[in-house]
Amino acid sequence: MNTGLPFLTYGVTLRGRYVIDSVIGSGGFGITYKAWDNVLNCAVAIKEYFPKSFVSRTPGDVSVSVFTDMNTVEFDHGMKRFLKEAQDLAKFNNRPGIVSVYDFFEANNTAYMVMEFLDGCTLKDYLKANGEKVNIDTGLYIIDCLLSVLADVHKAGIIHRDISPDNIFICTDSSVKLLDFGAAKQTMDIYNQTVSIVLKHGYAPPEQYFSKGEFGPWTDIYALGATMYRMFTGLMPTESVERMVNDNMPAPNVVNPAIPQYLSNVIMKAMAVKVENRYRSVEDLRKDLVPNAVSDNSRIIRKIIAICAPIVGVAAIAICVILGVQMSKSSKHKKYEATSRNDITTTEQKAAADDEEKTTAASTEEKGKTAVSDITGDNLTDAKIGPAGLAMPDEDSDPIYVYSWDDDLENKLQYVKAKYPEYADLIRYVNLGVGGNSEEYLNGLENATEQPSIIASDIDVTYYFTESDGTIPLSEIGLTEDMYKNAFPYTIECGSANGTLKAMTWQSTPGCFVYRTDIAEKVFGTSDPETVQSYVKDWPTFISTAKKLSTAGYKIVSGSDDTQRAILGSRTAKWVDGNKVNFDGALTSYLEISKQLYDGNYTNDSNVWDSTWFDGMTGNVFGYFGSPWFVYSTLNDSKGSATYGKRNVCQGPNSYYWGGTYLTVTTQCSNKELAALVLYTLCCDTDAMYQMQCDNADFVNNTAAVDRAISDGYGSTEILGGENPLSTWKRNGLEIKSNNLCDYDVAFYSYILDASWNYNHGNLSSVDDAISQIKNSIKADYSNLQVD
């Protein structure tokens, strides 16, 4: 993680006419500046393409330097897309509801986009200034403005895919503009192709959570409905994927009785989980709103101006509209204007200092938390030397800030605080409340008010942190692989970069096959795990068993892609070695097995995470490939339901892993002794991890703790009918041979899913054709890679 992003300084001139004034905001892919246009004699906002994971700039220099040759290809590809998006957006310059693009060009070994500079505030800020919600008339005025914009955008074949209060801007002249078209990467004529997942939790519809989602105007309509829900109720909408499992989100007029019934109905229809139940176009939605629209907008306009103006004062906020870069929520440029021209600071920390919207550290008071059981073992806090020889921090030393995306890690930190209560107030948790592998999460870390000391990362993006110069080898703070010797070997590999341990995890996530015991009894005559394992012991047997289950009226899995992680997890090498693409037999196996499952009608042809996939859990599906967290938190069972307690686990055809959260320590951590103690306790301390396992909080990444828990009779769960899965999970975890993580995993998995779907549904005639499609996709997106 680059925490010292260098900016262009005051006075730098671009294209002979644009003079840089100050930095307004920055994110993972770009920097936005306030500048003066000497030709038009007005202030403008300039967006600079600056993907921080690929490039750097020497302070005082204007040119951008790309790290490696491999990065150069990806950088060039992204820059072309940046300029194409600027060109596409410029087509809407005469459209009042979209930010105008005046110019775009290449310079300084990168690209720039010049946009209009706006006065006003985001809808998110507007809501904060207005008691977190708006009255009906004001809200309808804002929505009507957006419907007009979306109608034009959709006609042009563009889906925005990121509508939320953050990306709606209310100007001081009362006009409303839709921002950030960086998510609109796909046009209407290619809806059915694989798309990159861009989503904002609470506002994204279910189809945005999986690559084969059916995208269209209805995708934006869901997000618009969620925005209305937020505007009129003051509450964040329930996650769409949660609603797929259990839709108990209250209707808007239940939350706020002032909301008319017709408006409540419109919002709920716009937010329908199933696409077919949603409005198909903004015109259809408008028909239900227009008869009730406010006729006198002048009073609404006056109110908007009255509320919006104090938020921004005389300052203006420039907008980052491309590539998902987060806009500044306060007028940072005012700070720069008040500073001596010779004293302009160009560090990212300085630019972030004024951001009013940054997440603050969570309170150290534990409200409503379940007490953690007493942790056994010696308490060494009175000594200068702590466990395993670690240096103990002073009780009055600096606090550390632990950043993550939900409350899971916060709950685990209670085990540290219970064992070392004298440090409880120094361990401060920050929950950014966004997706763990989303751009929002990276932006939240980059723009954090408090310097992150420990960063949690989802396994899919852990390499981003372990390969960064912004995180340190754990040996530098006294944590050694010997301390971590009880960890499952694959987790050590996942947390290492070039053989150096840089991340640890408290959890292991070995894959398994989770099956219905009632169906096993009917079809096999027994639900004993060893017997069921014999029916799924390898892939040929798995297909034979699928046929047997089909004869009895059951599907062996919900969809062909259920098998993807299990099969591809057995591959023997990374997808890319150097710059050469490697496809071993695992890819062919996956394509062949997926096709056999489809042709035999052995599945419901669902996609992982879609509604049909979840429905199968309480329907006709025999099993799912999962992991410990899947069993504890994803199974669609509830007490009293027909399937509750009627599941068990077995190993399945081969070992693999799914998921995991890893912890890294930043170079800027001011209390490395405390950071080391936190990681040691969570990830190495057998006593603490034993207690964690006994509390059924997770499947811990410590074989000694797991063995002790098994020996002491812990691990059984009602979800599995009282069975204990720990031995199965341990065996599977030890058999995982290699992590094989690389930077291309997410993209390659997407290409493979797309090709497999086309092959299964007859759009491709052979496995060779499917592999050719995958290779062509790689060649199109990564010209730096050698594809044989």
UniProtKB/TrEMBL annotation:
Span of domain Protein kinase: 18-290
Spans annotated as Disordered: 334-373
Entry keyword annotation includes Nucleotide-binding: yes
InterPro entries given in the database record: Kinase-like_dom_sf, Prot_kinase_dom, Protein_kinase_ATP_BS, SBP, Tyr_kinase_AS
Binding site for ATP: 47
Keywords from the UniProt entry: ATP-binding, Kinase, Membrane, Nucleotide-binding, Transferase, Transmembrane, Transmembrane helix
Record's keyword annotation contains Zinc: no
Signal sequence range: none
Top-level lineage group: Bacteria
Segments of skewed composition (Polar residues): 339-349
Protein name: Protein kinase domain-containing protein
